[in-house]
């Protein structure tokens, strides 16, 4: 089922980022949508978007998720908020920890408070595989944001619904290794942390599909996870920059050898829902709503207790041909 966006006003925090900017374009392809609001703190990127996107349904709102009064003003009359604003550069945040806390944790709580106060109907957090069993500060702050969103439902009592999506690296996103390699094809030498390292990869189109699926099906408290492919870092370099000499430099601070999207502990209260996994809250009694998740429980299949979705043991792998196809589309 495709969500009906007729006469809906949608606001995207972090709307000038890689996901936000392209998601705005995706939303505007639907003629039924009423308004799309880009909320971000970067005036230059907003100016660039204004010159690129000519559509009278777009509004630009300069502000920071750290600023609760500004969010109150921005959320007035909004039906749906997609919360994509975050600080996310792992090495940088290891050395600037409280900046990550202020944006990713306190900012997320501000989004929750403003959404409840302004009676926004649905709010969806964009999370990351690094939130599952985190070892770095970025992942830890996103885990906190997930917990805040899930338990935000206990305050809103069905008037405002809060859920999350969690996925891996976006192919070609700004600042990614793929973007760097594509923009620097003359590079003679590349640096690899560890040739055994694996990562989950998702295309922008897949991320949009996940977000729309979550917005359509969420009843509050779920984490939606896509069944996306993995790829070895060494294979990624071979596919995009086969001519480059490689130097192994070792894993950087805060990095994992492999990423995880769904843990064994979460599997005990998670369901296979076709193209997606859906994690339900471990204790749904806090929401005081009987049969809240009956659709997922009825249509989905409960995962086995020892199941986990980890990048190196994935059944679905990207190869050069599949990667090339995705890059051509995006």
Spell out the key features of this protein:
330 residues; alpha/beta; Rossmann fold; three-stranded mixed β-sheet
Describe the protein's architecture and organization.
It contains twelve helices and 17 strands. The protein is of the alpha/beta class and 330 residues long. The protein has a single domain, classed as Rossmann fold. Strands 3-2-1-4-5-6-10-15-14-16 form a ten-stranded mixed sheet, with helices on both faces. The protein has a three-stranded mixed sheet with strand order 7-9-11. A two-stranded parallel ribbon has the order 8-12. The protein is globular and about 55 Å long. 40% of the residues are buried. The model has no long low-confidence stretch (mean pLDDT 91).
Identify the overall geometry: globular
CATH class: Alpha Beta
Give the structural class.
alpha/beta
| Proportion of residues in extended strands | 15-25%
DSSP helical segment count: 12
Largest sheet: 10 strands, mixed
Chain oligomer state: single chain
Tell me the layout of helices and strands:
Layout: E1 9-13, H1 18-28, E2 35-40, H2 43-52, E3 58-62, H3 68-74, E4 80-83, H4 90-95, H5 97-117, E5 122-128, H6 137-156, E6 161-167, E7 169-170, H7 177-183, E8 189-192, E9 198-202, H8 204-217, E10 223-226, E11 230-232, H9 233-240, E12 245-248, E13 260-262, H10 264-267, E14 270-273, E15 276-279, H11 294-299, E16 301-302, E17 309-310, H12 320-329
Parallel strand pairs: 1-2, 1-4, 2-3, 4-5, 5-6, 6-10, 7-9, 8-12
Antiparallel strand pairs: 9-11, 10-15, 13-17, 14-15, 14-16
């Amino acid at each position: 089922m495709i969500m009906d966006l007729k006469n809906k006003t949608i606001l995207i925090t972090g709307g000038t980022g890689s996901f936000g900017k392209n998601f705005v374009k995706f939303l505007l392809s639907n003629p039924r949508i009423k308004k799309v609001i880009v909320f971000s703190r970067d005036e230059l990127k907003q100016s660039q978007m204004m010159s690129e996107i000519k559509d009278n349904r777009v509004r630009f709102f300069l502000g920071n998720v750290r600023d609760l009064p500004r969010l109150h003003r921005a959320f007035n009359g909004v039906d749906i908020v997609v919360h994509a604003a975050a600080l996310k550069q792992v090495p940088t945040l290891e050395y600037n920890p409280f900046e990550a806390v202020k944006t990713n944790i306190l900012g997320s709580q501000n989004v929750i408070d403003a959404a409840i106060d302004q009676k926004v109907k649905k709010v969806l957090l964009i999370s990351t595989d690094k939130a599952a069993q985190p070892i770095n500060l970025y992942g830890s702050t996103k885990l906190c944001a997930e917990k805040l969103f899930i338990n935000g439902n206990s305050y809103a009592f069905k008037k405002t619904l809060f859920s999350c999506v969690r996925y891996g690296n976006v192919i070609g996103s700004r600042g990614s290794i793929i973007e760097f390699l594509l923009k620097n094809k003359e590079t003679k030498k590349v640096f690899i942390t560890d040739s055994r390292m694996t990562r989950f990869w998702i295309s922008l189109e897949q991320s949009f599909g996940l977000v729309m699926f979550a917005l359509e099906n969420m009843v509050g408290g779920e984490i939606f996870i896509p069944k996306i492919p993995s790829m070895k870092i060494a294979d990624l370099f071979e596919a995009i920059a086969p001519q480059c000499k490689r130097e192994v430099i070792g894993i950087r601070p805060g990095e994992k050898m492999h990423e995880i999207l769904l843990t064994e502990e979460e599997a005990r209260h998670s369901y296979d829902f076709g193209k997606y996994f859906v994690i339900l809250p471990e204790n749904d009694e806090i929401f005081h709503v009987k049969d809240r998740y009956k659709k997922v429980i009825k249509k989905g299949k409960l995962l086995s207790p020892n199941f986990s979705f980890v990048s190196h043991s994935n059944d679905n792998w990207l190869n050069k041909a599949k990667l090339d196809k995705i890059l051509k589309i995006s």
